[in-house]
Amino acid sequence: MLTQPLYETYQRFRTLQTHKISSLPIVILMPHSACNCRCTMCDIWKGNQNLRQLSEADIERLLCTLKKMGTKRVLMSGGEALLNSNFFRFCEMLRKEDINITLLSTGLTLKKNAASLVKYVNDIIVSLDGDEVTHDSIRNIHGAFKIMADGIQEIRSLSPGYRIGSRTVIHRLNFNKWIPLLISAKIIGISQVSFLPADVSSHAFNRQQAWDVGRQEEILLSEDQLPALQMIIKTIVEDWKFEFESGFIAESPLKLQQIHDYYSAFYGKNPFPYKKCNAPWVSTVVEADGTVRPCFFHEPLGNIHDQTLEEIINSEKAIRFRKNLRMETNSTCLKCVCTLNLSPRAGHF
To answer: What is the 3-state secondary structure of 103-156?
Structure first.
């Protein structure tokens, strides 16, 4: 008889081979559609007036599929997930089923929710855009950096070893503040920093229409700025070796170089960096209105208000999508900035 870890590995291999999902280790939920920041590179906040949010009944229905598919971790994304008044009730329901929870947050309400976060959420990833001045400018919220730092300090006072990482989108408005960002992250007690380039071409992040060239150029590095970006990456790789070795910087030097290569690809200097990703086979995204996607960037597969999550992810449409998806030629995948590649043998995470 197979042990539970071997059974889970078998189910993940089976999913990859048949394109029918037998195991769903990761699920991304968006409990609330609104955001409490007004970030320059994101349009989510522009839809704040059209509020949508998941309910306790939605989570209850989802749990049937999550339990059957052996979901190990739920990422609470958004918008700002903490804006949903039932957020911690959702966490309680998920934790009862031994599902770990990661919160992706703007960091603006960490302090007032610190005790509940320590109790119900396994770890937090905050959005960090630069040093204090740069962060506040990009977030378009005065004092956002200090508010986030105070929240991190409050959580640390309750649980000194609590894991709080950060994720930074590197783009035209902050690439030259990359090293001050690293210093600031250490000062405020970030456990690990992670970096990715800006998505400027998809319909994700509440873009009803893809950005036109003018809007893209507000965020894309110009061709003339590429040498400066290359020099900054070279400096980080040479001067922050310990931080790579210790894991404080999540990406490898190669991954940081690919941020440069991603931007230079827009000017025909090289192909877009190759991404190895199996997100549609090991995860799914459920948006605040119930829309289900194979990942943040691809088209919807259905809605949990019309079908169960299992029916959606294993529908004929979904299986055909996975079977025919070629990362190396698909236009969405080619320019993707956020990938997931989970080995079938990956343990509990």
So the answer is: EEECCCCCCCCHHHHHHHCCEEEEECCCCHHHHHHHHCCCCHHHHHHHHHHHHH
19: left (phi over 0), alpha (psi -120 to 50) or beta: left
User: Which of the 8 DSSP states describes residue 174?
Assistant: T
**Residues 164-197, buried b or exposed e (16+ Cβ, 10 A)?**
bbbbbbbbbbbbebbeebbebbeebebbbbebbb
Q: What SS3 class is residue 176?
A: helix
3-class secondary-structure state, position 55 = coil
Two tokens at 16?
């990859």
| Alpha carbon distance 30, 15 (integer Å) | 25
pTM: 0.91
Burial label for 5, CB within 10 Å (0-12, 13-18, 19+), is exposed
Amino acid (one-letter) located at 220: L
Q: Are 313 and 306 in contact (CB under 8 A)?
A: no
Q: What is the mean pLDDT of the chain?
A: 91
Looking at residue 39, its pLDDT comes to: 63
- What's the order of all strands across the beta sheet hosting 26-29? 192-197, 164-170, 123-127, 100-105, 73-76, 26-29, 283-286, 291-293, 302-303
Largest CA distance in the chain: 61
Distance CA 103, CA 123 (A): 7
* Residue whose structure tokens are 């690990």: 192
Lowest mean pLDDT among 3-12, 64-73, 133-142, 219-228: 3-12
Query: Per residue in 253-286, pLDDT tens?
Result: 999 999 999 999 999 999 999 888 999 999 999 9
What is the arithmetic mean of pLDDT over 338-342? 84
